Amino acid sequence: MLEYLETVAVASDRNFDDPRFQVQYVIRPKSEELHDYRGYAGQIQSGIYRVGDQVTVYPSGLTSKITKIEVNQQEVEEAFPPQAAVIHLADNLDISRGNMIVRSDNIPNISQDLEAILCVTDNADFRAGGKFLLQHNSALVKCAIRAIEYKLDIETYDHIPNPDSIKLNDLIKVRLRTSEPLAFDAYRKNRRTGAFILINENTGQTVAGGMLEKVEEEV
Predict the structure, then answer these.
(1) Is 49:68 a contact under the CB 8 Å cutoff?
(2) pTM (2 d.p.)
(3) pLDDT digits (tens, 9 = 90+) for 51-73
(4) Among 81, 109, 123, 206, which lies 20 to 30 A Cα-Cα from 50?
């Protein structure tokens, strides 16, 4: 066992293949010195961004090109995770906190209908129709539970359909509907863009952590 632990290959927790950047703050100084300055600040969640990249902004779907990247107030040719960066675009698009800037040849899932596994962290109204706030990194949207598909028995790994009750530390598979489209990846593919939390609308308490699986396919 010791020999195996010393030699086993450890996978990186950084995804360098799928460029994902979620805007945390729009920088508009509007000073005489920086009259036309417009930068989008945030952390590179995954992938590599380079000056000249064609990008698409979600959920709007508007496109542009990266003209400048700043890291530590210095212009650079590329940025990668987990660097904090400021991205400048060629066009003055309507972009706000929570919007995702991705490379146009590598598009995430875009949907209001989500499938996820939840780990319950607090007592809440976990039932079809239950309403919450969904925090996906810097994006915050309203959501509702459309259905609870099953509860996972953590001892046998059996799926329990239509569970009678949901309590602290339960693992449940749910289908969610958000108030506006969300740009995301499956958790198995990209942990940074596949994870979220649910928040009680009234108290602000975090009631569950979630892992997104895929876009729900309507029949």
Answers:
(1) no
(2) 0.88
(3) 999 999 999 999 999 999 999 99
(4) 109
172 closest CA partner among 217, 215, 116: 116
Question: Could you name the CATH architecture of 20-103?
Answer: Beta Barrel (2.40)
CB atoms within 10 A of CB 83: 14
Q: What does the DSSP 8-state code read for residue 60? A: T
- Diameter over CA atoms, the chain: 66
pLDDT at 196 over 60: yes
For domain 109-215, the CATH superfamily is Translation factors (2.40.30.10)
Using DSSP's 3-state secondary structure scheme, residue 5 falls into: helix
Q: Which residues contact 126 (CB under 8 A, 6 or more apart)?
A: 118, 120, 145, 148, 166, 172, 208
Same CATH topology for 20-103 and 109-215: the answer is yes
Mean pLDDT in residue range 86-106:
96
pLDDT of residue 125: 84
- Given a cut of 50, whether residue 7 has pLDDT beyond it is yes
Q: How far apart are CA 193 and CA 150, in angstroms?
A: 24
The verdict on whether omega for the bond into residue 59 sits within 30 degrees of 0, i.e. cis, is yes
Q: Where are the domains of the chain?
A: 20-103, 109-215
Nearest to 81 by CA among 11, 13, 166: 13
Contact in structure between 135 and 196 (CB atoms under 8 Å): yes
Buried b (16+ CB within 10 A) or exposed e, 32-64: eeeeeebbbbbbbbbbebebebebbbbbeeeeb
